[in-house]
Amino acid sequence: MQRGDFTKIVLEHQGRIRLFIRMLGAAPDAVDDLAQDVFVIAYERLEMLEDIDQAGPWLRAIARNLVRNEARKSTRRRRVVNTSLTDVMLGLADEPDSDAWTEEWFAALKVCLEKLPQHGRALVDGRYQQGQNASQLADQTDMTPAAVRQALSRFRGLLRQCVETRFQQAGG
């Protein structure tokens, strides 16, 4: 692999790596730093990448390891929003034959998010895009923090089921 190919790899994968890191549960304000770390490590280890077509899975593996390390670190310098979500997503990301993290998976997730009721989309967006905790969401929605957590759990289940159904219908 040539060092000149690295620019092409960064341009092609930087958006997806940032999204992947966020999907693993990294705090919104930590995503750019973690993505930069991914590309620094990738540059240092570029000779390990034999096929440029495998750059995506290789970069995701680096990102997965970085997020896993962040989840293990002390809570003083927390860059992972929800360690239980991160554990689940890391487990899914470790499955070699998983349909997760493909363009089709993200497209299915987007469609499924749009199918949620408005208050469900607002809770999911507040929690996972804006990084708000259950107490903050409760203040905005006239719900208790426990009710917010329960609703988010239900909506995650609906999203999981919807994505799986879309893949089964598509034969994926």
What distance separates the N and C termini? 32 Å
Order of helices and strands: HHHHHHHH
Poorly predicted parts = none
Number of helices: 8
Q: What is the averaged pLDDT score?
A: 80
Task: Give me the secondary-structure topology.
Elements: H1 5-23, H2 31-44, H3 55-72, H4 83-94, H5 103-115, H6 118-129, H7 134-141, H8 145-170
Describe the protein.
α3 packs antiparallel against α4. The chain is globular. It has 172 residues and is mostly helical. The chain has helices spanning 5-23, 31-44, 55-72, 83-94, 103-115, 118-129, 134-141, 145-170.
Describe this structure in a few short sentences:
This protein is mostly helical and 172 residues long. It has helices at residues 5-23, 31-44, 55-72, 83-94, 103-115, 118-129, 134-141, 145-170. The model has no long low-confidence stretch (mean pLDDT 80).
Name its key features.
172 residues, mainly alpha, 71% helix
